[in-house]
Amino acid sequence: MPGITPRGPGESPGPEPLGTGLRRNNADRDHPHAIAELLADPRARVVDLAEGATPVTTDSGESRPQARLSWRPPRPDDAEHLVLSIGRDGAAGPVLAVVRDREFVAPAGSTWRGLREVGADLDPFDAEVFMTAVALARWHESHPRCPRCGAETVSERAGWTRRCPQDGSEHFPRTDPAVIMAVVDEFDRLLLGRNVLWPTGRFSVLAGFVEPGERLEAAVVREVHEEVGVNVTDVQYFGSQPWPFPASLMLGFTARAVQPDLRPDADEIAEARWVSREEVRQLVENAQLTLPGRLSIARRLIEDWYGGRLSPAREATWGRR
Ligand SMILES: [Zn+2]
After folding, report:
1. What is the pLDDT of residues 31-44, one digit of tens each?
2. Centroid of ligand 1 to alpha carbon of 102 (angstroms)
3. Which of 159, 183, 298, 313 has the smallest CB count inside 10 Å?
């Protein structure tokens, strides 16, 4: 049965804690034979990646499914593929991802799964590795040529740069900033919206991309006004979440409405409403509200406003807003 774990004042979940144990290691990338050296390290461990999926082992767990990346030691043929140095683990062992095609047979007991499917069931370390590997691999795949001269570029610096052999230019993985915001009115009700592409009952806080030359705070004000016609002020930073679908970084904010009249942009927002905590509690208890996935920053913003964890019967797949 969907329920709510009560929490006292000041116990709201808040932003995610810092760090997952993955140590991003710039020094590893600068060595001219970085990949060969890292693959030769006896502590090295590898995940395979194809089309945004990786072999995963799952078990049902006590209260919810648990998933693990299917780690393996390096293989002699790894160096024939695109290899990405993701970082080092707590014991300083190299953590690598090898980009293959789906023909590669997943190790016994594991199956190919996408980040959206299993992201929420992975521990934070595995989730960060998977997210980083997917984001980097997609960038390599979609940037095969030099934007200056059109020549084919090559992966360098252990997968963190592509270089053009014709003009020597270097190209770096992109991260596109997007803002996501919990807006409250004078009664401390939360603004929720339903995207035109979402089924009935599915709601989240509003979000949108930052434009070139725009401050984050201004993007929050602009997006809320564009999507629902509400003017906001008191924009405060909350926390962030990588969003590799394909290359975003979600920057979470809170804001206060100056006037609460809702005029949703019909092209984007099917429905927008102000909800009180009591309404959210009842909607969740009656299974009438589908919330964003439990590890999404959207969910953290909603639960932070609510003041406790929500356990809806229905929640969106992790990674979708
Ligand atoms: Zn070039």
Report:
1. 889 999 999 999 99
2. 30
3. 313
